[in-house]
Amino acid sequence: MTAIAVNQFAQSITCHAWGPDHSMVAFCPNNNEVHIYRLSQDKWEKVHVLEKHDQIVSGIDWSPRSNRIVTASHDRNSYVWNLEGSEWVPTLVILRLNRAALCVQWSPKENKFAVGSGAKTVCICYYEQENNWWVSKLIRKRHDSSVTSVAWHPNNILLATTSADGKCRIFSTFIKGVDTKDSRTGPSSDSKFGEQIVQLDLSFSWAFGVKWSPSGDTLAYVGHNSMIYFVDEIGPSPLAQNVAFRDLPLRDVLFVSERMVIGVGFDCNPMVFAADQRGIWSFIRFLGERKTISSGSKYGSQFSEAFGKLYGQSKHGLSNDAVEPSRSRGGIHDNCINCILPLRRSGISTVMRFSTSGLDGKVVIWDLENQADLSEYL
Questions:
Q1: Distances in Å between the alpha carbon of 251 and those of 17, 125, 134?
Q2: Rounded to an integer, what distance in angstroms lies between the CA atom of residue 219 and that of residue 211?
Q3: pLDDT of res. 350
C-alpha cells in the first residue's frame, strides 16, 4: 500500500503545512483557526491553536530554516508567526488588499513570500529591518481574475501564478535591497519587479495548482477542464505539452522528480504523470492502483496529438492528450484533495514521501519507496 499514515484531524481541511523536522503539522479545519499537532509516541496531540484571523484561513506555509509560519485568509490579512518560548506570536503583514487572500508561499531563501488574492493581485512581502515590520509590493493589472496559486522558482526571483482567467503567468520579483544581483539568471537576468516574463494561454478554463521542477527547468499547472500542462524553455518561445484525462479535474500538483509529477484533486486519489526518455509526458496510473497505460490509450494519445496539430495546438509545442477510461471515485480520501506537500529529506531532491489533505478532514502520508513500476521515473 502506498499510503503509510492516515490521520483524521477534522471534518474538513482547507490547507496544511509541515514543521521543519516533520514532527509537527499545521492545518486549518475550514474555519478561522490554525491547529498545530505534534507527533508524540505514535500519537498526534494538539499543542497550539493560532487565533488571529476573522475568516477562513486559505493558505499556510511553514519555513523549514527560519521556523516561521505564514498564514493568509479570506479576511484579506496575512500574519507571520514566530515561536517565542512556548507561544506563537503573530505579526500583521500590510497586504493592502480589498479581496480575500487565497494562497501563500515562502520563497526558497525565505526572505520573501507571495500572496495570491481575489483582487487580481499578487503581494510580494518582505521584512523591513528599520521599521521592524513586513511590507508588500503589489503586482497589479496583470491578472483578469482571482490568483488561485503561486509557485517560486528555485532562483528565488521568478514567480509562477495561475488564475481563474485560465492563464499561467511568470513574473520577476526582484527587489533591490532584498535580492542580490547575482541571483538574476536566465529569463529574469535584466527584469524589474513585476515584469511579466511570459503568459501561457494553454487552458480555456480556470487554472489552479502550479509547481516548478526541482531544477526549475519545467513548469506544470492544471486546468478545470481535466488537463495538465507541462512547459519547458521558459521565455519568449516556451515548449508546451498537455495531457488530458477523462476523470475529474485536479486542484494541485507536485514534482517528485524531474520526470514525475503527482496530481491531486476532485477524484480523491493521487494521479501519477511521467515523462519518457524523449521528454513526452503521459498519465501513468492512480497511486492507489497498479494500472499502467494500455496500448489503446497510447493510440489515443497519437490520435489526439495529430488532431491537436490539425487545429493549431502545435504552435504551443507538443500535444499529448492521454485519455484514460472512467473509473470509480474514492480511495483513502473520501472527498476532494486540495493540498499536496513534499516530505523531503535534507540534501535529496527526489521526493519519496509526500502528504495530501482534503475536504474529508484527513492528512495522508504517501510513500513511493516500494513502487517498482515507478522507479524508472524517480
A1: 17, 25, 30
A2: 6
A3: 83
Flag whether the pTM goes above 0.85: yes
The residue count for the chain: 378
Query: 300: part of which helix (H) or strand (E)?
Result: helix 295-310
Rounded Cα distance between 146 and 91, Å, is 25
User: Under a CB-based contact definition with an 8 Å cutoff, are residues 29 and 12 in contact?
Assistant: yes
Q: What is the dihedral of CA 204, 264, 67, 58, to 10 degrees?
A: 60
pLDDT tens by residue, 303-328: 334 333 333 333 334 444 444 444 55
* Nearest of 170, 164, 163 to residue 186 by alpha carbon: 170
Distance CA 8, CA 62 (A): 21
Q: What is the pLDDT of residues 95-134, one digit of tens each?
A: 999 999 999 999 999 999 999 999 999 999 999 988 888 9
List of E strands, 173-238: 196-200, 207-212, 218-223, 227-232
* DSSP at 331: S
CA trace torsion 366, 372, 376, 377 (10° rounding): -20
CB 276 within 8 Å of CB 258: no
Which tens digits make up the pLDDT trace of 186-233? 665 678 999 999 999 999 899 999 999 999 999 999 999 999 999 998
Whether 226 contacts 202, CB under 8 Å: no
- Distance from chain centroid for Cα 268: 17
* Cβ-based neighbour number of residue 87 at 10 Å: 9
Report d(CA 310, CA 371) in Å as an integer: 38
Q: Which amino acid is at 130?
A: E
